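Reproducibility note. Readers wishing to regenerate the assembly model reported in the main text can use the exact inputs given here. Chain order matters: entities are listed in the order in which they were concatenated for prediction.
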Amino acid sequence: MNVFGKKGFKKWMPLLGLLPAIIVFGAFKIYPSIMTFIYSFTQYSGIPGTPLHFVGLENYKMAFSGFSGIGKAIRITIIFALCVTLLQNALGLFAALVFNKKTRGTVFYRSLVFLPVVLSVVVTGLIWSLLFSPIGGPIEPIWKAVFGHSSSFFGSNTLALPLVIFVQIWQNAGFTMVVYLAGLQTVPTELLESAQLDGASRWQRFRHVLFPMIAASTTVNVLLCVIGALGTYDLIYVLTGGQFGTMTLGMDMFNTAFGGSNQLGYGSMIQMLQFALVLIVTLILQWYLRRREVEL
Amino acid sequence: MTVVILILLMAFLTGCDSKKSSSSSSVTLNVTEWTNPSAIKATKKLNKEFEKAHPGVHVHLVDAPTSSSAWDNLNKTQMSAHTVDVMAQFSISNQVPKSYMKNLQPSMLEQWIDAGQIKDLTNEPFIDKYFSKKDQMNLMGYKGKLYGVTMAAYGRGGVFYNEALFKKYNLSIPKTYDQLVHVCEVFASHNITPLMVGAKDGWDQMIVEAGIQQSLPHDQADTLNKELWTGKTTWANQPVFKTVMERYQKLSQYFEPNAFGEPYAPTPGLFANGKAAMLVDGTFDGDAVHQANPNLKFSWFPLPMTDDPEKNTMQVAGDFSWTIPTAAPHQKLALEYVKFFSQPKHYKEWENIVGAIPTQDIKKLSQPWMGTELEYLDNMQYEFHIFTPSNAGDLAYLQTDTAYLKPQGKYTVDQLLKKATQQWTAATH
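Running the prediction on these inputs yields the following structure tokens for the assembly.
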């Protein structure tokens, strides 16, 4: 039944109602996306009054010309996304299991773990830059006592990427925990009790009862983590500026398009590569995780 | 109800606007410059004098830091909206790409000039107040015309040094590379950090730049660029580049501990408060050091990176330059503003606060640390530019490769030069 009627104004009312949202979505999502695609075939600098200068596939050819740095950026992006997704989910799930009990102080501890999520990226970056400052930072003497040598931390070619991964996880693990908590609270306690009566160990109860029951939460968390991590540039920008082996695709795109060199065309091409990477990884993961949900 | 609230809100906002307009029947001249505390202080002081000399004119100064993209974005938005009257820009300093430089885009300022968006100042009479027209053309000339007035220059690739510490250990200003190493060794032997660099932000690269600038003949800059871009000269086949990198590597052992984790911003303050004997820096930061510790006696000298004192000169580059957009809402007033700043009396006032290398004939500045800098002017050279290809790998540019060099990185000098050559060649062919 059409509640709006079939004639005149009533027929068009739903469309009119949607129009503001369509206009906003079109202006701020569709139009920029189409323009990014078009710019990726140009040498446009983004400077008003300058020509677009179409170069065909030249930007894409340059990206794969061997030493452009894009290959390295893709590799770093994948390592970053893989580590963040695995560790953040493991940590989020662990925290959710720990705080899924109604004991004294649980709400406080949940809030504590969630707290970094509400901090802005810049604040998070500054906090950890100060903590890891090699001159006067509080972590430096501890590091020296434990490892016997000091480090330049975010300025170290070997440590910068692991530290950025750590900070990204620190900031977002609380959100992952909340999604897992929501999933865990839908699991009927009877199921766990009957498994326990049947003699299932704690690990078996988790592996064969709890984990399959929160498959939907896992899917959401993994996809959000992967999409977020593949596109990350803001935190990296604050912590290292993309130096010392932390130049992800997102960071490379930002530096190229907006970081002073004003190569909006080449930057748009990197953005398209990043979009393709996110699309491919997300489609594969979604296909796998949905199939897994059904099987479970 | 919503409609009523909206109408009231609009009426309120309109009221705000009209109140602003009615209270100031004056003309507002919009000026932008990047965030440099001393330059802002100086400009604001002269703005007041300009307003006093031009009743009814209000100068609105907007600034943004260069360390993020904020400055670039401010420039772009103001130019797009045609709202800026006078705009500070970094000097062009002969950095105009040549035709053989594949895929290399000109700078933002050059693109604006090409698009006819920056006013030609070639025949403005106030240009005569500055150093020779040739010098001005070197700094803000583009395709035979002058598009800005360079108010300040700076010397890069030098160090601020703590005069008291030099005196205490009976050290004099080093004139050659070996003397510099000796000075560093003396400080290191007394557990004083010899050099502070802020390498996380690449400030240490000034050492490599100074080495390249002092080692190569400046009149051959065009030839060098052409040979690098055509593959005749490479980072690996010229001994001079190897020497420069080896010398950098040697000096890096005298940096503050974990220098690559230390950003540049706090280093003037750390140096000013005695954390190191020398600070690798450009002359533009003298005021920052002074502000951090007004009691510190310090001065500046160019890093001697060769064995020949004659070659170890101060390398000067243009810095703060006023430009006027052709779409400036108040063209005449904008021109008047730049003319006002160019008057020797006003210029000296501005320069005395900024503390940069002057571009008008000033023999003495009020800042004590500027004394020796002005002496170096007698034997200075304009910095030449090595054009680096766009979108090459991060090892292609010799001066930015320091983080990859042992002991901080994993490459020896030879390995690094080979890698840099490979990436440069791939990007230029």
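We highlight two features of this model. Chain B has 16 helices and 15 strands. Residues 11-24 of chain B have pLDDT under 50 and may be disordered.
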